[in-house]
Amino acid sequence: MKTLLVLYLCVYVAWAQDNLDYDDYGTDANASNKNATTGTSVDARGHRPLMKGRESYSRNRYSPPPVGGVSRYRGRPTPAPVGGQQVQEKEPQPDAGGCTHASEMMGVLCPTGCELKTTLLKQETDVKTSINQLKPQVDDLSRSSNNIFNYVNSMSNSLRERQRVFNDNSRVVSQYTDRVEEQHAYIKETVDTLFPSNIRVLQGVLDKIRLKIQKLEKAIQAQKEECKEPCKTKCPIPVVSGKECEDIFRRGGQDSQMYLIQPDAFTTPYKVYCDQSTQNGGWLLIQNRLDGSVDFGRRWDEYRRGFGNIAFDAGKGHCETPGEYWLGNDRISQVTKMGPTEILIEMEDWTGAKVNAQYRQFTIQSEASNYVLAVDGYSGNAGNCFLEGSLELFGENRTMTIHNGMMFSTYDRDNDNWNPGDPSKQCSREDGGGWWYNRCHSANPNGRYYIGGAYTSQMAKHGTDDGVVWMNWKGSWYSLKAISMKIRPYFASR
Ligand SMILES: *[C@@H]1O[C@H](CO)[C@@H](O)[C@H](O)[C@H]1NC(C)=O
Ligand SMILES: *[C@@H]1O[C@H](CO)[C@@H](O)[C@H](O)[C@H]1NC(C)=O
Ligand SMILES: *[C@@H]1O[C@H](CO)[C@@H](O)[C@H](O)[C@H]1NC(C)=O
User: Fold this and answer.
1) Which residue ranges form the domains of the chain, and what is each CATH number?
2) What is the rounded CA–CA span in Å between residue 210 and residue 199?
3) Closest C-alpha to ligand 1, atom 4
4) How buried is residue 155: exposed, middle or buried, by Cβ count under 10 Å (0-12/13-18/19+)?
5) Where do the coiled-coil regions begin and end (predicted)?
């Protein structure tokens, strides 16, 4: 297991080295003991004001409206009178996420094994190329050393010959002999010192490769041990499944916890957290922040695939506690394009006060259009950041903070509305997360997590309001304790 860890670490380090120059951040312990808005002046940030006379701002680009039309769902039937709590059926499931090992004899790997497999394959090519590079060198070396041995031999022979022939005439010959002897000595030295040192270097390389192979063998052995038993998920997944959480609710999955969903027959089922109690349930959690345990300053690929922890078992034997995660833009896009979808954004400050923002329509386009955001139909008490921008700002400054119609941006893929094409003007680099940045934001749910709420521009990496911000509730310099985004197929309730 240790070697596995070491291996994993190596890979991670290698990966981290080719990371972009994004400043990673840890939690800032000092965030909690400072006050940002010490009193009077409210410094509204979020936008990037125009440089007078040098820049112009245009937010006009085509963006498709949210998916509307007829819902796939009708209102829920009135619930049957409650007569004793129904117990939901659950069963521990072998985790199906395995993949086959490159060598068939080794069978199917546990999901963790897939990581190892990738690592092994990568290492194998490394070793192969080193060996391939070494081969011609070794061949050359042995060829040239053979030649030189032959040369030295013949030289020695001729020396002996000459010594015999010119025995009597040694005075005449001695000068010549001396030279031949010199050369002989020189070549002999070369053979004695240079070649051994070359060979020593090669030996070292070989030893390293041998060591590498040993490590890999150990890791494989460890993995084999782990895979003896079929892998079990940490907590049982309910048997009931569905297209999304509303479907699951209607099929009887009415406890809030982790479920497997499968939006269509072509999609591999995946785990999500379903909130089945808020506003009658049926909510699929697509984003969640609650303790800063997951880093949201991530690349495009990670936002596409999703990251974080879906749910935990807090002792009840099933995964009823959601973790911090981003479901993944591909999945969010797929689910929201199946039909009219609503979104509920709930947030909480550090005193425990709670507000929410809800949009009756919410659609994310596919990656081909950089996951354009479209919302409509606001209600709630947190403030309409997506459609109106920040109410602390005015005119064009406010327009710059509207999120509706924006493409998704990450620090390695800039699609925002702040001087497109200028690498020094990227909202995502400065504001901490992947988001539908405009120029730049009024809401920043994927921003940096500050413990305690209030923070200052001095504490921010780039002096910008990079916290978990919802400007229309708490302003730029207050980072929320918790925020979550949940979606549900829209249907008119009866
Ligand atoms: C927190 O800030 C204080 C001063 O305000 C400083 O002395 C201390 O070193 C800081 N602690 C950390 C962990 O940054
Ligand atoms: C921080 O803010 C709190 C509440 O707004 C206030 O009671 C406290 O005095 C402030 N502390 C400082 C150092 O400004
Ligand atoms: C926009 O913001 C800049 C700087 O923050 C400010 O100078 C300017 O007056 C603002 N414009 C409007 C219309 O409020």
Assistant:
1) 245-489 (3.90.215.10)
2) 16
3) 30
4) middle
5) 199-226
Give residue 465 CA to ligand 3 midpoint distance, Å.
17
Tell me which residue has its CA closest to atom 13 in ligand 3.
395
Tokens 């303790």 map to which residue? 291
Q: For 215-255, write each residue's pLDDT tens digit.
A: 988 988 888 877 776 655 567 778 888 999 999 999 999 99
Residue 188 has φ and ψ, to the nearest 5°, of: -65, -40
DSSP 16-84: HHTS-S-------GGGGG--SS-SS-----SB-PPPTTT---------PPPP-SS-S-PPPPPPPPP-S
Distance CA 274, CA 256 (A): 5
> Ligand 3, atom 11: nearest CA belongs to which residue?
397
Residue 164 binned pLDDT confidence (cut-offs 50, 70, 90): confident
Tell which one of 397, 418, 440, 464 to mutate to probe ligand 3, the residue whose CB is within 8 A of the most ligand atoms: 397
94 lines ligand 3 (CB under 6 A): no
Under 8 Å between Cβ of 258 and 269: no
Give pTM, 2 decimals: 0.62
The verdict on the CB of residue 38 being under 6 Å from ligand 2 is yes
